[in-house]
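May I ask for a sample protein chain and its fold as C-alpha cells?
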Amino acid sequence: MTSRRSRARLTKTRHATAQGTNHASSFASHPYTLAGLVAMGALATSALVNRYLTNKAERENPPAGKILQMDGVRLHYVERGEGEPLVLLHGNGSLIEDFETSGLIDLAARSYRVIVFDRPGFGHSERPRSTIWTAEAQADLLYQALRQIGVQRATVFGHSWGASVAVALALKYEPMVKALVLASGYYYPTVRADVVALSGPAVPVLGDVVRHTISPLLGRLMWPVLMRKIFGPAGVPQKFESFPSEMTMRPSQIRASAAESALMIPGAFAVREGYGDLKMPVVIIAGEDDRLIDINDQSAQLHRHIAHSTFHSVPGTGHMVHQTATKRVMAAIDEAAGATRRSASNQIRPLAA
C-alpha cells in the first residue's frame, strides 16, 4: 500500500514539474509575450502610482477661490482687491499659483480688482472633450464668466498661451477689454519641432495611456531641466518653490497642456491677420533672453504690426518675465490701464471757446 502511494505521489510531482518546465519553456520560446506581460504590469503599476499622487496633490492643494459653472464647465477663479478690474491669464501647463507665487496678485490687488482664472483643464477648472479649446473658445467661456461676476470692462494681462486667449477676447469682445498687456506670447506661426513631441498625450486612446502612465514620470524627471530653460538666463527664484508642481503632473492637466501645444501653431495662423484690428491700448513685454520663444520674431514683430502699441524688452530675463521681473510687469499693467484713463480723459475734454 505504502509503495503504491509513494509511487502515486512521485508521479504527481513529476507531472507538476513537467508542467512547470513546459510553461517556462513556452515563455522562453515566446520572449515577446513575456516582455509584453512585464510591460503591461509596469504600466498598470505606474498608473496606480500616478492616480495616488494625483489624489494627494489635489487634497494638498484644494481650490483657493470660487467655482463657476459655465455651460456645464467647472471654472475656478480667485478674486482679490478693489478698483478697476484686472484679469490675469496664465500660460500653458500652469495655473493660478503661478501668479500667486510671483507676487503679482498681491502687488496688483493694491490698486485693482484682480481676477485670476484657472483656464480650462488647468488647476481646478474642467476641460470637456466635447469642445476644441482654441483661444477663441476659451475667450467665449471667460467672457461669460466675467459677465456673470459683474465685470463689464477690464484690463487683461496674458502670459504665453494666455496672451493668445487675451488677444482672442479683445478681438471678439472689444467692449469688454479696456487694455491689453501681453507677456512672452507666441503670435506668428513658425516651425516648432518640439510642438509635435509635446502634443502626443492629447492623441485619443494611445495618448490617454501615455498620460496616465509614462508622461507624469517623465515630467517629474524633466522638471528641473524645464525650469532652468523657462526661467533662464535668470535662476529659478526662491518664491517659486511653493508652486505646486505635482498639480501639473496630473493626467488631466497633461492632456490640456498637450492639446494647447498642438493648437499653438494653427492658432497663430488663424489670428495673425487680425492684430491690426486691436483698437485698445496694447503693452507688450518679454524677456530679452527668452529661450522658448524668439522675441524678435514674436513680440517685436507684433509691436510693428500694432502701431499704437508699446514694447518693453527686459534684459537678463527669460520666458517667466512675471516671475523674475514682477515689478516691470506691474509697471506695464499700470501703463496700459493709465493709457486707457488718459484716452477717456481726452475724449471728455471741453471744447475750446
